[in-house]
């Protein structure tokens, strides 16, 4: 193997690394715990023989001269005067007022300032509000324009002061359709003429008015048993009368016509309609499922599938609202209307006429005053004189209901649930005339 050359370490200050060079003793070395009062502290390397200059302390005369000079300078600069007291400078302080008195004096000023500023702020706030309100008055929505036009078309634009706005409380209720309600009932008035049932009993061979009354009485009982909506009952009776006015029916098919009509009305009005088997059972299995479905097809074909018609119930709801009726009066109106459904004589009256007559007869029965006002006349479209004939029929039906063999309607409205309105005495004013 090749031998390695070892280089000796470089010497530092003439000595080999690792060995310390002894430090030379400095001159004038301080003796341990010696006196330091006469030591020379000049390390600048200058002349050691030269002594430092000594500043003598300020005497009283020198101090007085400084104070005089300071006072002179202050006066020249228009500053606060300087007083010399006992050889010291005393600055004159400004006169301090009493804070209690200042508050007492300044407090009303602050209040006035606050009141003025608050009034100014309120005035500023009121200005944009008045501008906004004026702007709101000028804005006209499409809904308001359509509502105004519909009222003009219906003759309701220039209402008298004694006419009550019955829809004022439902302005925020979207389901009430306040903007279109006048147009809706104007359309119903036009549509009821084309869908009205005329006298048909003369064309029927095996069916008479008494049989129809028995059928309607039974259908009202079935309607109550199934707990169906009122709309379903009125549509059922309409379908029965409409079918009988277009087709000659056998006596044995009359009940089949009734349950099939209620099946159709239930499908049209109810959320959960009764099934076909329910009607089979309610008829004591007099008719089969196939017979009910067959009659259903026959009815729809005869009616041309036209089921959207204004029944008396459509007008009853509106006219009861027009009369601002309480619960007792509402039950009385529906009691008289259902009594009218049973009677064939009422078929010749339009649905709106039957509804308005029921309201008028109910007001007469309950001795409401006035019996007929301008609000009811405007919204129903009938005067008191026009309702007398139909109202007399309804009151006569009410008078004989307690002694009649068909008592389903009477028993229904004799219960506390319906305020027992059937037990009230009929209107004597209409019975006597």
Question: What features would you describe in this structure?
Answer:
This protein is mostly helical and 433 residues long. It has helices at 60-76, 99-138, 142-153, 181-195, 209-226, 230-244, 254-269, 276-282, 289-303, 312-322, 327-342, 351-365, 374-380, 384-400, 408-412, 428-432, and strands at 82-85, 88-91. A two-stranded antiparallel sheet has the order 1-2. β1 and β2 form a beta hairpin. α5 (209-226) packs across α7 and α11 packs across α14. It is elongated.
Q: What integer value in Å does the Rg equal? A: 56 Å
Structural class: mainly alpha
> Which consecutive residue ranges, at least 5 long each, have pLDDT under 50?
11-27, 30-36, 43-52, 100-116, 129-136
Write down the secondary-structure element order: HEEHHHHHHHHHHHHHHH
The whole-number mean of residue pLDDT values reads 77
Descriptive terms for the model:
433 residues, elongated, mainly alpha, two-stranded antiparallel sheet, 16 helices
Strand and helix layout:
Elements: H1 60-76, E1 82-85, E2 88-91, H2 99-138, H3 142-153, H4 181-195, H5 209-226, H6 230-244, H7 254-269, H8 276-282, H9 289-303, H10 312-322, H11 327-342, H12 351-365, H13 374-380, H14 384-400, H15 408-412, H16 428-432
Antiparallel strand pairs: 1-2
Helix pairs in contact: 5-7, 6-7, 7-9, 10-12, 11-12, 11-14, 12-14
Q: Outline of this structure?
A:
This protein is an all-alpha fold. The chain contains 16 helices and 2 strands.
